[in-house]
Amino acid sequence: MRVSKIVSCWILNITCFCSAAPRLLSQPSAPNHVIVLAASTVFDGEGRVLHDVRVVIEGSKIVAIEPGLGPANYDLRGLTVLPGWIDAHVHITWSFDKDGKNAGTEGKTQEDAYRAASNAWVTLMAGFTTVQSVGAPNDIPLRDAIAKGIIPGPRILTAAKPLEGQGDKTGTPDEIRAFVREQKTAGADLIKIFASKSIRQGGGMTLSQEQLNAACDEAKKQGLRTLVHAYKEAVRAATLAGCTEIEHGTLAPDDDLKLMAVKGTYFDPQCGLVIENYLLNKEKYLGTEGYTAEGFAAMEKILPMDHAIVEQGVKTPGLKMVFGTDAVAGAHGRNAEEFIDRVRDCGVDPMAAMVSANSLGAEALGMADQIGSIAPGMEADIIALDGDPLKDITAVRRVVFVMKGGIVYKNAARDAIPFYSGVEP
């Protein structure tokens, strides 16, 4: 009952926001005519670099990639062009309240709806055209409003209400299976599972192997993926349960990372942004639910451990390490800082970092045939950076062009205007 009331309230508030928003912010329909982008450097999302090409878009799809640079609608020469990024782990509705304090994800007011819409907008402007929000029931009306073109934002996949691991209080395996089915009925795109406590509280395991087995097995039967918050021994348990993706993974031993590689389990560790964001916004979080002085002291010690698990992941042959930030209040729109952390602090190859948020990220979401690559038949989710991230990873901060589904939402490049226009861009 409580969940349905929250969602109903948010549908009303999102609608109110959209009615009041300027027409400029409304998402237009995908154009039916052809748009051509001219690019001198294109990362295709799968690790290859293309030079001097024209990317041809019709409606929301890429229809061709041709050699040569003219004529075109948008001149992106001198920039690095690549697929829109995918963030596998955000909390898109998480915000600070009117007093500047942590408000969590379960907002109920019109102001909360405005803040969620703002989170979506700044995330899109940062180059993230698809995110996986894991999650809160409030994600659903925001997801649907964006999908319908009512407001602009990244494509959202949501877990709706997560399964909170609380030992025996979580429920029997049959009750857990029923919970999974309820989330599918509620509109979830995947199932989020907490198999560990917060790392601020030590990260101990909160679900039994039998409970994890039931959750991940039932999700598969329902055609849903599973994403598991896990530290220490919970990493191995979730892998053995056949879960799709494991988050965080701090303090997992090498053998468990190797097991994930063997099983084909996707791994999404965080190298820096989430902890750095908490420390940066300490006064806004401190004293709110789950955030204590002891917890912040623990986070300062955890950051080197987070670096270590990403470094271990890099050295594990065959491990599918995707890109996810765990973006909460204060981090929305700064998601790309995680790229810098991974490359600078954790030894991730810059191209591997890009691929983790492109084709590999799409594969983890079960959407490899739709997004994550610049190729004919794919969605026209395309961004451009002022700089080359292979030479200077801080170029990820300079997103100057954003197209999602064939619609240009940002065009701030110095010369990214039509140098020849056969059609209206």
CATH architecture of the largest domain: Alpha-Beta Barrel
Task: Work out the oligomeric state of the chains in this entry.
Answer: single chain
Strand element count:
17
CATH superfamily of the largest domain: Metal-dependent hydrolases
Pick out the low-confidence regions. 1-28, 416-425
What profile does the largest beta sheet have? Answer: 8 strands, mixed
| Structural class determined from secondary elements | alpha/beta
Mean pLDDT: 90
Distance between the termini: 47 Å
> What is the total number of structural domains?
2
Q: What proportion of the residues is helical, as a percent range?
A: 25-40%
What characteristic shape results from the CA principal axes?
A: globular
Return Rg in Å. Answer: 21 Å
Q: Secondary-structure element sequence?
A: HEEEEEEHEHEEHEHEHEHEHHHEHHHEEE
The CATH class name of the largest domain reads Alpha Beta
Number of helices: 13
Proportion of residues in extended strands: 15-25%
CATH topology of the largest domain: TIM Barrel
Keywords:
alpha/beta; six-stranded parallel β-sheet; 35% helix; 13 helices; 425 residues; 17 strands; globular; 2 domains; Urease, subunit C, domain 1
Model description:
The protein is globular and about 65 Å long. A hairpin with a 2-residue loop joins strand 16 and strand 17 (407-411). Helix 1 (2-20) packs parallel to helix 3, helix 6 runs parallel beside helix 7 (254-263) and helix 8 packs antiparallel against helix 10. The chain has 425 residues and is an alpha/beta fold. The strands form three sheets. Strands 1, 2, 3, 4, 5, 15, 16 and 17 form an eight-stranded mixed β-sheet that branches. The chain starts with a helix and ends in a 14-residue tail after the last strand. It is built from 13 helices and 17 strands. The protein folds into two domains: 34-84 and 374-411, Urease, subunit C, domain 1, CATH 2.30.40.10; 85-364, Metal-dependent hydrolases (TIM Barrel, Alpha-Beta Barrel), CATH 3.20.20.140. It has helices at 2-20, 110-125, 139-147, 173-186, 209-221, 233-240, 254-263, 273-280, 282-285, 293-315, 337-346, 350-356, 359-364; strands at 34-43, 49-58, 61-67, 74-75, 80-83, 85-90, 128-133, 155-158, 163-164, 190-194, 225-230, 245-248, 266-268, 320-321, 382-385, 399-404, 407-411.
